[in-house]
């Protein structure tokens, strides 16, 4: 009995000891698995003058956990990890990153973003600090969009300027229209005035290489008319091109290659789908038609014989020919249907367009001379077969200080624009039957109409095949200027702005195009040279009186 009791006590002690060890191990494991201690953080955010800032964003760095300050500048965050970093952000102030310490209360002072307030923007014929501007002015720097590889000036502006609407173009040329103050505010064209390097630019935006642009400032309110007059009633887009900077010459090579494709396919009916559609059409416009009159005779029900079906309109001959004639298919369509030969007009109308853009530039500044040279070549194909656009653009920006108080310079650009494209008439594809033909029986000569249905539709490839076109435009635009400082805070600048445009258009249409066969073909030739120039004399006065500044131009 005694031995039994001792044995029982011994087992109990062992069991208790094992349980204790298990609990200890579980506790250690649980402690290791638990996250680092978290705490609640609170505080007040002020500016350097002591003013409490409402609406400041407070985020735990690397997470989406955050809050914002209330009207008294207070914030509170729960379950903040021990070694977290709080990020404080507010418009017009520098971002602050503050590590979480032992104190659960964190008071933060936000500093003014002096760099942003000192940022210079172009206004009219000069520049101003951003902090001094009261009008509606927005700026975008081309360097901010380098990774997006903008192909046109419109690509730089699209989606980056509030209040500026930029339409899109699916052509190989690209681009789009600009609208700042809406289409109904003032009569006439809604396009804003374009000013490049301080002078009004009358040319096309496609002649400006986006890789040459430093900044674009957009004046959106009516105050722009005080500088540029009535022409700026729809706003002003101020383009500033790149200049050379101090240091060694910088050579930049920029190249982009890509494909233009349709964003969404809306395919046409294939052969069987077209026949099914035509069957439904004929049934809908012939409400008194006999049963199965427009159906395929090879699929008639057992209670209707071929002879009964033919007797509907007293037709004789091959039942399939009768059926297709009832569907108003023409001879070439019937022939191809019976041969099982279809034409995919959709795939012939559209393509994957190859796009490429290459620019090389060199810029620098040595002593009293700054320079920037660039040359760019663009060759784009559109998504429509036959659509293409080619341009070669060069730019020279030079400025030299010829005396202590006088500088001379030039900003000049040249563009060779080729718009000789003759795309297919893709809108005609909806009228072309999939059982139609592109070529005549010789396989070379285009059919006048894919369905031999002249008057209702024509071959979409007529213009593209039988038109020989050359349409080129050469433009030379820029400014020659002299500027200098005068006594008593005055400065003077004179600009001479030449603008040359050489336009050549040759268009010949072959007599093989049936529309011009009776005239033995036609040809048109146009050559036009346009020149205009402008001289601007600008006198400015800038004087600072203590905390006050006077600037007159």
Task: Please bin the fraction of helical residues.
Answer: 10-25%
Which structural class is indicated by helix and strand composition?
Answer: alpha+beta
Largest sheet: 9 strands, antiparallel
User: How many extended strands?
Assistant: 25
Strand order of the largest sheet: 17-18-19-20-21-22-23-24-25
How far is the N terminus from the C terminus?
A: 119 Å
Query: Can you tell me the overall shape?
Result: flat
Are there runs of 5+ residues with pLDDT below 50, and where?
1-36
Strand coverage percent: 35-45%
Q: How many separate helices?
A: 10
Average pLDDT: 85
- The whole-angstrom Rg is 38 Å
Quick structural overview:
By secondary structure, this protein is α+β, with helices and mostly antiparallel strands.
How would you portray this structure in words?
- By secondary structure, the protein is α+β, with helices and mostly antiparallel strands.
- It contains 10 helices and 25 strands.
- It has a 9-stranded antiparallel β-sheet with strand order 17-18-19-20-21-22-23-24-25. The chain has a 5-stranded mixed β-sheet with strand order 10-15-16-13-14, with no helix packed on it. Strands 3-2-5-6 form a 4-stranded antiparallel β-sheet, with no helix packed on it.
- The longest helix is centred in the first third of the chain and has 32 residues, at 2-33.
- The model is unreliable at 1-36 (pLDDT under 50).
